[in-house]
Amino acid sequence: MGKYIGPVCKLCRREGEKLFLKGERCYSAKCAFEKRGFAPGEHGRTRPARAERESDYARQLRAKQKARRVYGIYERQFRRFFDLALRRPGMTGLNLLQALETRLDNVVYRLGFAENRAQARQLVNHGHIMVNGVKTDIASMMLRPGDVVTVEENSRKKPYWKEVVDVADKRVAPLWLERDVKGLYGRVLRLPERAEIDGNLNEQLIVEYYSR
Q1: What is the pTM of this model?
Q2: 149 occurs within a structural domain
């Protein structure tokens, strides 16, 4: 899969809200969105006026693009997650968000072992994470209730993992995850409920976009 290497602050500005793609920096005064909250590009300052006249398709597209950017995946993979959600019983929109939330890189981020999803993906790709005692480098792996996430034994000696304990201890893990910060351990207890997933995502518009 390709990797976006452009300035991520532009993605927040394009969506018109903070997506917290840079972790702690997004909470500081250095956040680019605080300085330039308008959309990027030559006509970015006039875009809010045009947004009032957005078509249904435009709103559906923006909802889909926002979800893609929050979870840091490209269109082809996002479409595969949607097709998977479509085949599962229940509400397609909720199935999609649950599938995205249970990706390994997102679980590592939710556990507080990384500042953002991009960093979590890098930790997985570099072989620092184990699932059920087996080292894996597949960031898109979907976890199930009962799966255990730990840090690889040799990786624990690295300075990063000694510092991350203090950082993670300040963040609250969601209720669908069990976490032991000092033990660098996490377990999926159940699938997340809708109220436990980002409320700014509109899964209904995403379903409408792909159902055209």
Answers
A1: 0.82
A2: yes
Residue 212 has pLDDT above 50, yes or no: yes
In degrees and rounded to multiples of 5, residue 114 shows phi and psi of -150, 155
Domain count, the chain: 2
The three-state secondary structure class of 149 is: strand
Query: Do residues 31 and 85 both lie within one domain?
Result: yes
Q: Which two tokens stand for residue 191?
A: 């699938």
Nearest Cα residue to 71 out of 34, 37, 96: 96
Least Cα distance to 31 among 23, 40, 39 occurs for 23
User: Which domain, by its residues, includes 134?
Assistant: 103-188
Q: Give the mean pLDDT of 22-43.
A: 57
Do 12 and 93 lie in a common domain?
yes
Cβ proximity of 148 and 142 under 8 Å: no
CB 19 within 8 A of CB 11: yes
pLDDT for residue 46 = 61
